[in-house]
Write a structure and sequence with these properties.
With 308 residues, the chain is an alpha+beta fold. Helix content is 33%, strand content 13%. It has 8 helices and 7 strands; from the N terminus they run αβαααααββββββαα. The relative contact order is 0.16.
Length: 308
């Protein structure tokens, strides 16, 4: 078989790994603590991050160094560095979109150049932030019209004023730009809030056949009669700006229940962080684990050897 006729390898998601057993084992040991490339300022993966706290004694927990039974924190890729540069460039392109209109005649088509720069300024916010979301339903949204972190109301007013600028009076254009500039300022502030937390979920290994509503702790409502990769249960109580869920996760031949706390913006935040455990609204949720069973022992391939 020559190079032209070799079958193409299908693309993998960022969570899938090659099938080679040795490489898979190495990746499995990094799956919980995170990858070194996420922390360029450190020589290795940090044992703890600023803001991380431990669950209360009512939780049975373990770590990627100890193993055994118990809930374990799985760090996800830090949110801030993924959107830092694009977010910083957005205001530049928004201001640059004014230049062809304030100093006309210096481009082949002033209006289209201004429109292109304006569109780029918003795409630099929309596209990178959309990649931070996990793709599952976000129950933390207030309603279907809630597009947080994007300020849809201000953007709608800016669009209406832009139409008035075209139809009635060009002077409305200045007001339109002012609304869009304020909307972008508010949007960037919201993105900072959404991405300004440690991102992690808590995992417990279980046998898939063990999952049922009978193992759910008080306050949790099942949404699936049996184990599946996806939503299993949800917290019934109110959580301002957040929603708590239990999700089924499979890696190799191992199955887990993941406890996740999703922000209104769709990003996953570590529930056991200093910013959240101090809030009274989360006291009942975090007081005890979501399952009444101890789960299975952690497979050895997920346990990283202690550093000497």
């Amino acid at each position: 078989m020559n190079e032209r006729t070799k079958p193409r390898v299908s693309a993998r998601t960022k969570y899938e790994r090659p099938n080679a057993s040795t490489m898979q084992a190495a990746r499995d040991s990094d799956w919980l603590a995170g990858e070194e490339r996420w922390y360029p300022a450190s020589e290795s993966v940090p044992e703890s991050l600023v803001g991380e706290v431990n669950p209360p004694e009512s939780w049975s927990v373990t770590s990627h160094r100890e193993g055994g039974r118990g809930w374990m924190r799985q760090r996800l890729q830090p949110l801030g560095p993924m959107i830092l540069y694009t977010t910083a460039w957005a205001p530049f392109f928004l201001l640059a979109s004014l230049a062809p209109l304030v100093f006309p005649g210096n481009t082949p088509d002033d209006q289209n150049v201004a429109l292109a720069l304006f569109a780029i300024s918003w795409l630099l916010l929309f596209v990178p932030f959309s990649k931070l979301r996990d793709g599952l339903e976000n129950r933390a949204r207030a309603n279907l019209l809630d597009h947080y972190p994007f300020e849809g109301g201000l953007m709608l007013l800016g669009s209406l004023l832009f139409l008035l600028h075209v139809i009635i009076d060009p002077r409305f254009g200045g007001f339109s730009f002012a609304f869009f500039a304020y909307a972008q300022y508010r949007t960037i502030s919201n993105i900072t809030i959404s991405a300004g937390h440690n991102s992690a979920r808590w995992l417990l290994p279980i046998e898939s056949s063990d999952f049922s509503k009978d193992i759910l702790a008080q306050g949790w409502v099942e949404v699936s009669a049996g184990f599946r990769n996806g939503p299993l249960a949800q917290w019934h109580g109110p959580l301002p700006e957040y929603a708590a869920d239990l999700t089924g996760v499979t890696r190799g031949d191992s199955t887990f229940v993941a406890f996740t706390l999703k922000h209104r913006g769709g990003t996953v935040h570590d529930p056991f962080s200093e910013k959240l455990v101090e809030k009274q609204a989360f006291a009942e949720l975090l007081a005890s684990p979501p399952l009444v069973i101890a789960g299975e022992a952690w497979p050895e391939r997920f346990i990283a050897p202690s550093e000497q």
